[in-house]
Amino acid sequence: SLYSVFTVLFIYFTSISTAQTTDCLHLREQCINAANGCESVWNVIEDVCNISVLGNRCKAEDTIGCNRIIQVLADEYPEFKNCVCTTEDFCSIMTLLGKQCGINKDNISTETKLQWSLSALSKQAYTANRTCLDVNKECVEDEVCNKQLSMYLKVCSVNKKCNMEECQAAIRFFYQNMPFEVAQMMTFCDCIQRDESCHRAKELLHGKPCAVTAVPPPSCLNVIHMCEEDELCRKKYTTFRSKCWRHVTKKCYDDEACLETLIKDDMPCSANADCKAAYISNWGTMLRVECTCQNLPPVERSLCELFHHMLHSKSCFS
Prior knowledge:
- By secondary structure, this protein is mainly alpha-helical.
- Helix content is about 55%, strand content about 0%.
- The protein has a two-stranded antiparallel ribbon with strand order 1-2.
- The longest helix is centred in the C-terminal third of the chain and has 15 residues, at about 300-310.
- About 30% of the residues are buried.
- It comes from Grus americana.
């Protein structure tokens, strides 16, 4: 198991001299040549990161799983802390495994698209009003969808300590790499009030609680302001506004004083395919974090409720 593997690593690294190098390749070489069981750990890492010894290449299709193991490694063994980075999906793999892991990002998304083209699920036409239990079941029964789903659930699992940023990255990867029809089915599925198993399936598909539940919940004003300070989120929010809420953008753009004058009835939403794609693209960003307008001074409440309506009301798509 992974834990016994990391126990071996721990025993090995506590015996390394204190004159520690931060060169990841050097650490790796020391580990492989130690002849004390450490090599078997690298076999696990190389297996998950899909490194071909013969081709001297790494095809890490499961970048999330690979990065996750490198992250666990660094959490447990600080020697590796400089081998982990967060700037992009492939960063830690490249830092730890060096040139051996010359990944072509385009190849990965092409391979994922190719896998989906063989999936029966992706050939289904989108139908509204699907229950989340049905959609979840269909995904689990579909080999390609199940592989993507289990990768994402491994990171966002409720029975371990939740890392919101990691889970959000996993949910972004999950929704970005599936056909639009499938993403729509998952995003817009729903449940009747008392169907517990359906509600559990919905939470799994929508990243709850890990990717969307902050304690205490932030105000929707804070969510928008935090999003605007983050480059990735800001781009997605700008697209979402222009594709779904054109009237709002046209009338007020970013002017909060102007936005406060709008009421929900004065906000037609386009709800076309471009809008749906922009809404799906918000998954895995702070725009999907559950927010509140309670406890705000009255002067801020109407603007906050307008943002809540834009981000969380399904009225646009129902």
